[in-house]
Amino acid sequence: TDTEPAAPVRETAESIATMEIRGAATIASAAAEALAEQAEAAAASGETASDPAAFRASMRAAGRSLRETRPTAVSLPNALRYVLQRMEGETVDELRRSVVDATEAFVRQLDRAQDDLGQVGANRLADGDTVMTHCHSTDALACIEAAVEQGKSISAVVKETRPRQQGHITAEQLRDAGVPVTLIVDSAARRYLDEVDHVVVGADSIAADGGVINKIGTSGLAVNARERGVPIMTAAQTIKLHPETLTGHTVEIEMRDESEVIGSEAREEIGEIAVENPAFDVTPPRYMDAIVTEHGQFPPESIVALMRELFGEGAAEPWAE
Ligand code: RUB
């Protein structure tokens, strides 16, 4: 039917679900761009090309199929909200234009926010610092790269991040930025904290109480960092702020397939045991020293004020049928 999402949307949704496209900020820009591609496709063919209501319905359907891919990174619904709430016009061409313009504005804003927060995060790092990273966060990398651009000499201890080993991506990108990297297994983190001056992580969502939802293992790292007296910051653009937590909702933690944890042969050998694979965890605000955003740095407990200011109107669902 005409409300079936176009091929580029189905491909983006599939790539997000399989984690070919991953990381909260990257997911957000890919989702917005998929909406723009949907608008172009819908304006060019079938019933949606001549019927503004059908066009709008196809945009909502595209939004739903993107929304259903992964549950934890709020940047995804925030991106869909940004674009779909700006969809306006009497004709299909006006609607199409508004979606394409909103997508371009969103992606520009995302890039600018990352550059701006990178400067703020870099100011927290000193010349000669060693940082520890977890997973692969473009927001966290922006802070380290900006520090290097400020002329600071930075080295990194990079946690591999089981089970998907996103630490390898971080290691490669830091190496390309001229940062000497030491890769370690996750369970070596506490031992290496003695050699580290700052922990830098990203976020998939930030809750109204300042809780940071990020890759599984972040909370244990934060507790260990506190015990060792090592400061830890979360680098998170404001699209990571989770508006529904303002009204008491909790953030859903994605549970992924057990095959990411254990191969089929080992699984068969081991027999009747449970295997669980949560992708994210929650770091309580008291274990996080700062949330670094494009609007400056915040103690986690005060992030709610920024959240009210930016998402005061709450969590609309412009993709709903
Ligand atoms: C990625 C992850 C990242 C955040 C922030 O998890 O936890 O730290 O998404 O990334 P996954 P960014 O690999 O499961 O998507 O700063 O790029 O938004």
Quick overview of this protein structure:
Helix content is 45%, strand content 12%. The protein has 321 residues and is an alpha/beta fold. The strands form two sheets. It has a seven-stranded mixed β-sheet with strand order 3-2-1-4-7-9-10, with helices on both faces.
Q: Class of the largest domain in CATH?
A: Alpha Beta
Shape summary: globular
Distance between the termini: 15 Å
Could you give me the name of the CATH homologous superfamily of the largest domain? Answer: Translation initiation factor eif-2b, domain 2
Mean pLDDT: 96
- Helices and strands, in order, run as HHHHHEHEHEHEEEHEHEEEH
Description:
- This protein is α/β, with parallel strands linked by helices and 321 residues long.
- It has two domains: 7-114, Four Helix Bundle (Hemerythrin (Met), subunit A), CATH 1.20.120; 124-311, Translation initiation factor eif-2b, domain 2 (Rossmann fold, 3-Layer(aba) Sandwich), CATH 3.40.50.
- The protein is built from eleven helices and ten strands.
- It has helices at 7-17, 24-44, 52-67, 75-84, 92-123, 138-149, 167-176, 189-193, 218-228, 264-270, 303-311, and strands spanning 130-133, 155-159, 181-184, 198-201, 205-206, 212-215, 232-235, 280-283, 290-293, 296-298.
- The strands form two sheets. Strands 3-2-1-4-7-9-10 form a seven-stranded mixed sheet, sandwiched between helices.
- A hairpin with a 2-residue loop joins strand 9 and strand 10 (296-298).
- Helix 1 (7-17) packs parallel to helix 3 (52-67) and helix 2 (24-44) packs parallel to helix 4.
- The mean pLDDT is 96.
- Bound molecules: ribulose-1,5-diphosphate (RUB).
- Ribulose-1,5-diphosphate (RUB) is lined by residues 22-26, 73, 135, 137-140, 166, 202-204, 214-215, 279.
